[in-house]
Write a structure and sequence with these properties.
- The chain is α+β, with helices and mostly antiparallel strands.
- The chain folds into four domains: about 10-105 and about 105-140, Glutathione S-transferase Yfyf (Class Pi), Chain A, domain 2 (Up-down Bundle), CATH 1.20.1050.40; about 180-240, no CATH class; about 255-345 and about 545-615, Neurolysin, domain 3 (Orthogonal Bundle), CATH 1.10.1370.10; about 355-540, Orthogonal Bundle (Neurolysin, domain 3), CATH 1.10.1370.
- Helices cover about 55% and strands about 5% of the residues.
- It has 26 helices and seven strands.
- The strands form two sheets. Strands 3-4-5-7-6 form a five-stranded mixed beta sheet, sandwiched between helices. The chain has a two-stranded antiparallel sheet with strand order 1-2.
- A hairpin with an 8-residue loop joins strand 4 (about 390-400) and strand 5 (about 405-415).
- Helix 1 runs parallel beside helix 4 and helix 1 (about 20-45) crosses helix 5 (about 105-120).
- The termini are far apart.
- About 50% of the residues are buried.
């Protein structure tokens, strides 16, 4: 018996992490796979004519034990991994891939779905018709039409790929920890704020080091370099960041990622696609890899031109310090960008941080915006336990109808602090998917990697972390405000190049003057951020867009370059990885040394250890919709319940129950216009 054998008795079916032990996961997952296989066999072999109820909805009801165990396991693996859990993942990954293949390649089940499609009429609900269409597309893309020999090959490829992707993530986490920069001379930390220094000291002590430990965030850019005056230390941090996964140690990821690229290319060919990028794009709103390439290639030249113009200003500031021959390095960029911004706008991160305290930003910023837009309220539930002591649990209440009490909507779990056992970056997970079929309400998690201060010290943020809080809560809102019948259509179950759209829209409220003035309050004095500083922040929003757009596009183009290869074109030597990357960036015109890609190949977890392979373009693709929706909000009164309710009903609530672009058209009254994105990014010319 395990805690997963029955639906959790806790509110909203929150997994009972107080009862779950690491050794529960594997037997529950194995039992769940066996149970679902039997359930699917019964559906496929039923002598009854197929109906929505006995086929589509029966499939939606299948695998409940497996689902309960997997969501809890994958969430804990990402946020609080142990060697034991990583070993479980590596053992189970190929079995889970085989299980998924067995269902998707089941020809009897596919025939039953085809028969249901043939008889579906106008009386079939639109969400059921869309679900049926998606089931058929998924099966075809999974190889249901291949012969036995080809299916066997495909199963082997999928099993091996899941193992490799788990290995990549495991190596990357260990490599990131190993790459942390230990400083033993406090003088080298000149410029670093006291609370950030205290966090570095605590990190060192946690790993039994003397000194201060500068831990690695997932992207190339490390926030500390913006503050450190010691140029040599900035360069040490930069080299440690960019060297992850390519140092020849046990954490080197190059051999693993090359095999991943080759096997993805082989799989795409087996399924009839020229390359993996084509396979991915077909099932997204982009539809073709050529459409993706056209957008990225259109944006790259003006972005790099903007970055070069910004670099000229920064290099002038550098040479005032280091002499007329000094050349701007990647490790100099953030430091001198802060100096130039301070000179130009009389503002820098060091001034802002005391006014950006985590608790205040969350309560009076992120949650307040959700209250004003959607009528949501939040109550912390200290009686409910998360999967780690740092996790906070909030019950979410919906605005009541007149004369009624607040309606319990779901749970929101917040896990904001970095730790050695947590993978880098920021993300949202669903622990329970909203759906009416099973009568379930949503349970969602936000994870960030903010450095935890010593006990009793405030958690002060940089502005990028504020934006990340709003961004990830946008994903959470997509899950919390879902209102669909089927679990597989809940909230964020939309194409990869659409899923970032609502989260990017939610970033706009960090900049809303009313919201900003509420949360931008000095943590010690309670004084609001000076009005002129707020005005200056709003005026300086476009500062650094050349850098931001170029580093992002370089990563997106690098992802496409790796995944447009045929099996024969994949490099065979680990030494070729850096050379391939350099050529890909040069060919795309984004090889500008002071602005390296947001992720270099060897620590590109989005595409080699997560679900964004050939899909990192999704952020800018979604931003077209986002920027156009920001314009829509401005046209409809901004931060109002009326606008929020329209966005909720028309888009967030529908999740994946229909073509997501149809949801956007219902909101906007037309297809998306790219002009607002070009204006925002300074790319109009």
């Amino acid at each position: 018996m395990t805690p997963f054998d029955e639906r959790s008795a806790l509110p909203y079916e929150l997994p009972d992490y107080a009862a779950i032990r690491p050794e529960h996961y594997e037997p529950a997952i194995l039992a769940g796979m066996a149970a679902q296989r039997a359930e699917v066999d019964a559906i496929a072999g039923s002598p009854e004519p197929p109906t929505v109820e006995n086929t589509l909805e029966a499939l939606e009801r299948s695998g409940l034990l497996l689902g309960r165990a997997l969501v809890a396991f994958h969430n804990q693996l990402a946020a609080d991994a142990t060697p034991f859990l990583e070993d479980v993942e590596e053992r189970l990954a190929p079995q889970l891939a085989a299980h998924r293949d067995a269902i998707l390649m089941d020809r009897s089940l596919f025939a039953r779905l085809e028969a249901l499609e043939a008889q579906a009429g106008d009386d079939t609900a639109p969400d059921a018709r869309w679900l049926l269409r998606r089931r058929l597309v998924d099966a075809r893309r999974a190889g249901v039409a291949l012969d036995d020999a080809a299916q066997a090959t495909l199963r082997d490829l999928n099993a091996r790929l899941t193992t490799l992707e788990a290995q990549f993530g495991r190596k990357l986490l260990a490599g990131a920890n190993a790459a942390s920069v230990l400083v033993t001379d406090e003088a080298e930390l000149d410029g670093l704020a006291d609370d950030a220094k205290a966090g570095a000291r605590a990190a060192a002590l946690a790993r039994r080091h003397e000194g201060w430990l500068l831990e690695m965030q997932l992207p190339t850019h490390q926030n500390v370099v913006a503050a450190l005056t010691d140029r040599a230390l900035r360069e040490r941090v930069q080299r440690a960041s960019e060297g992850r996964g390519a140092d020849g140690s046990e954490h080197d990821t190059r051999a693993v990622l090359l095999e991943i690229v080759r096997l993805r290319a082989e799989r795409a060919r087996l399924l009839g696609y020229p390359h993996h990028a084509a396979y991915v794009a077909e099932d997204a709103t982009a539809q073709t890899a050529e459409a993706v390439a056209a957008m990225l290639e259109r944006l790259a030249p003006p972005a790099v031109a903007n970055a070069r113009a910004e670099a000229a200003d920064l290099e002038a500031a550098l040479r005032a310090d280091a002499g007329p021959d000094a050349e701007l390095r990647a490790s100099d960029w953030a430091f001198y960008a802060e100096r130039v911004r301070k000179e130009r706008y009389a503002l820098d991160d060091a001034l802002l941080r005391p006014y950006l305290e985590l608790e205040r930003v969350v309560r009076d910023g992120v949650l307040e915006a959700a209250h004003r837009l959607f009528g949501l309220s939040f109550t912390e539930r200290d009686d409910l336990a998360g999967y780690h002591p740092d996790v906070r649990v909030f019950e979410v209440f919906d605005a009541p109808e007149p004369g009624e009490k607040d309606q319990g909507l779901g749970l929101f779990l917040a896990d904001y602090y970095t730790r050695e056992s947590k993978r880098g970056g920021a993300w949202m997970n669903n622990l329970v998917d909203q759906n009416h079929l099973l009568g379930q309400r949503p349970v969602v998690v936000n994870n960030l990697n903010i450095v935890k201060p010593p006990p009793g010290r405030p958690t002060l943020l940089v502005w990028d972390e504020v934006i990340t809080l709003f961004h990830e809560f946008g994903h959470a809102l997509h899950g919390l405000l879902s209102d669909v019948r089927y679990p597989s259509q809940s909230g964020t179950e939309v194409p990869r190049d659409f899923v970032e759209y609502p989260s990017q829209v939610n970033e706009m409220w960090a900049w809303d003057p009313d919201i900003l003035e509420r949360f931008a309050v000095h943590h010690a004095t309670g004084e609001p951020m000076p009005r002129q500083w707020v005005d200056t922040m709003l005026a300086s929003r476009a500062f650094g867009e050349g850098f931001a757009t170029t580093e992002y596009l370089a990563a997106a183009l690098l992802d496409q370059a790796w995944h447009r290869l045929t099996p024969e074109e994949v490099p065979t030597s680990v030494d070729d990885v850096v050379a391939f990357e350099a050529k890909a960036l040069a060919d795309a015109g984004v090889d500008f040394a002071p602005v390296p890609p947001r992720y270099r190949t060897t620590y590109y977890n989005h595409v080699f250890g997560s679900g964004y392979s050939a899909a990192y373009y999704s952020y800018i693709w979604s931003e077209v919709l986002d920027a156009d929706t920001v314009r829509w909000y401005e046209e409809h009164g901004g931060l109002t319940r009326e606008s929020g309710e329209a966005f909720r009903r028309t888009l967030l609530a529908r999740g994946g129950s229909q073509d997501p672009l149809a949801s956007f058209r219902d909101l906007r009254g037309r297809d998306a216009d790219i002009a607002p994105l070009l204006e925002r990014r300074g790319l109009g010319a």
